[in-house]
Write a structure and sequence with these properties.
Residues 1-20 are annotated as: Disordered. This is Reverse transcriptase domain-containing protein. Pfam families: Retrotrans_gag. The protein is mostly helical and 235 residues long. Among the domains are: 82-128, no CATH class; 133-234, Non-ribosomal Peptide Synthetase Peptidyl Carrier Protein, Chain A (Orthogonal Bundle), CATH 1.10.1200. The chain is built from eleven helices and no strands. It has helices at 2-12, 31-36, 53-57, 82-90, 101-112, 122-128, 133-144, 154-167, 175-185, 188-197, 207-234. Helix 8 packs across helix 11 (207-234).
Amino acid sequence: MCTRSQSRSRNNSPQREAIPAIVEPLRIEFPFLEDQFQEDPPPESPMADNRTMAQLLQAPTEGYEEAIVIPEITANNFELRHGLLTLVQNKQFFGHDKEDPHAHIRYFNKITLTMRVLNVPSSSIKLMLFPPPSKTTNLRNEITRFQQRFDESFYEAWERFNDLLRACPHHGFSELHQLDTFYNALNVNDQDSLNSAAGGNFLGKMPRECLKIIKSKSKVRQTRAKAVVAKVGTS
């Protein structure tokens, strides 16, 4: 009986409600993601070369080699077909405003792919289609020996000089060399005009400033020439 009453008292006692366990969400840290999405620091800009034309012309230039080097070809008796040479010569790129350089490259790649020779890479064929050394030498000499003609305006001389550069795009002359060559090829009056536009000494300016002065002067002379022609035509 005692046992039963104890059992009843136990059964009649109020039951405590179970407290639900609080489960904290699992935290997974990905430290590398934070690093991955951090903004990269701005790249350090290289120091601008603020040397003048005169200072740069004193820099050593020894050790420069030709830019185009054709790899050795192991195939026997290999030579470019005359028809391929004709196709390239008939559609040359001169760098004029209306010419599309991308279309020229696509055409050049297309015609060079028509010639496939065992043990001869297509890249070698493309390099061989550049002007021969003798022609390159002649074109380079025309650039280095350039002189303004007696009856040639500044604008005409600048255009003719650029035509020579476009005719030999692999000339290898730096912008510094080009500017120096053109300046020394001008007559005294045009040299004085450039010096005046540069504040007294054209070679005392940086190359990018010299190029800007030349282009500005060329545009002015071109505009004046067109105005004179128009006036003569209406008179």
